Amino acid sequence: MLGFLWALIVGGIIGWLAGMIIGRDVPFGIIGNIIAGFIGAWLGSLLFGNWGPDVGGFAIIPALIGAIIFVFLLSMIFRGMRKTTH
Question: pTM above the 0.90 mark?
Answer without folding.
Answer: no
